[in-house]
User: Fold this.
Amino acid sequence: MTESSFSLPPECVLRPASAQDLKSIRKLVWSAKLDPTQLRWEQFWVIECGGKLAACGQLRNFTGAQELGSLVVAKDWRDRGLGIYLTKHLIQQATEPLYLECLGKRLASFYTRFGFVEVSVQELPQSLKFKFGLSKLAKILFRVPVTIMQYRESF
Assistant:
């Protein structure tokens, strides 16, 4: 199965998040041990399956850049293409250069398939340097495997 053939299961729908989704978004983000701060429902897209939140992801706005963040698929819905579908959608929604930070080589590999490439803190726009710089510091101090990436359409 090729990535372009991924579609949502029939019982699922992609939609912008609503204020009523915030509790479910927080629960999903917390379950993935991601940063639970700065979760603004207005920045999220969600995939709802059978009336329950199955996946979420946000585009955070910075000066001259956006961050793809808080992308989580509920455990019961993994390996069905929801993460691929949502990632592609968020990339299409981006209106500024798009960046992300991820933990582990497996996630970096996942995002590489979409055109994300690893970048250094020095290559980041000023608006992201402090935020992502803290992650790089954590990588050094606590040996946390953080990768900073930028979306590049032609790779």
Summary: Residues 49 and 92 are 22 Å apart (CA to CA). The mean pLDDT is 90. The beta strands are 12-16, 44-49, 52-62, 65-73, 98-103, 116-118, 146-151. The radius of gyration is 15 Å.
